[in-house]
Amino acid sequence: MAYADQQMSTNKVVALVIVALIHVFVGYALVTGLAYEAAKKVINKVTTVDIKEEKPKEEEPPPPPPKEDTPPPPIVAPPPPINIAPAPPPVQTVITPPPAPPVVIQTAAPPPAPPPPPPGPSKARGVKPKGQGSWAARIQSNYPTRAAREEREGRVGVRVTVGGDGKVSACSVSASSGSPDLDEAACDGMQRYARFDPALDADGNPISSSYSTAIVYKLN
Questions:
Q1: Which GO terms describe its biological process (predicted)?
Q2: DSSP label of 125
Q3: pTM
Q4: End of a domain among 47, 64, 81?
């Protein structure tokens, strides 16, 4: 296409140059006195020249590309028909009856419990010595030999624990006589000879309790 356009432009330029030369020639002929008819013929002959544009050569179309051995398209089975509007499933209406009201069974209230009987008189009591004169004399008669030989006398305060059977289960010196022999003899005699009526609780049951007394050691 560019070559054809260039060829066409060249033809136009040549034609314009020829026309310009003809006009120059005519002017010159008029100036020099040439015959008018001769100039007219030349002008008619020249101006009637048809300038034909050469048609550009059509370019040959490019050769078609070589055919490739393409596999045939796969055979696609038509899709199964789809039921667009299926029939709706049947609707079952279930009527639920209202729940039955609860059955309230009223029972008679149990009679009130009778009040507890009033408590009886308390039987509680403290421990009491039993036959104190007798066992006290026995304790004093067992005078320690060494203390008697040295003529030592004294008073021993003791505190004993009396069990439910009325016997002394433990003894301690609460006030010393100043003589270890006499203190030891007093506790030993209380555990061997002393007897008591045990203490009782509110129901009259014997219980363990404590008792305090004094043993006097005196030479005749």
A1: protein transport; transmembrane transport
A2: B
A3: 0.46
A4: 47
Token pair for residue 140?
């004093």
What's the structural domain count of the chain? Answer: 2
Can you read off the two tokens belonging to residue 69?
């051995």
Question: Measuring CA to CA, which residue among 186, 173, 171, 174 is closest to residue 216?
Answer: 186
Helix 36-47 × helix 2-32 angle, to 10°: 170
Contact 56, 7 (CB under 8 A): yes
pLDDT in tens, the chain (220 residues): 444 455 556 767 777 778 778 777 766 666 665 545 654 664 555 454 444 555 555 666 666 665 555 666 666 556 666 655 556 666 666 666 677 676 666 667 777 888 887 777 888 889 999 999 999 999 999 999 999 999 999 999 999 999 999 999 999 999 999 999 999 999 999 999 999 999 999 998 999 999 999 999 998 7
The tokens describing 167, both together, are: 């016997």
Domain that holds residue 36: 2-47
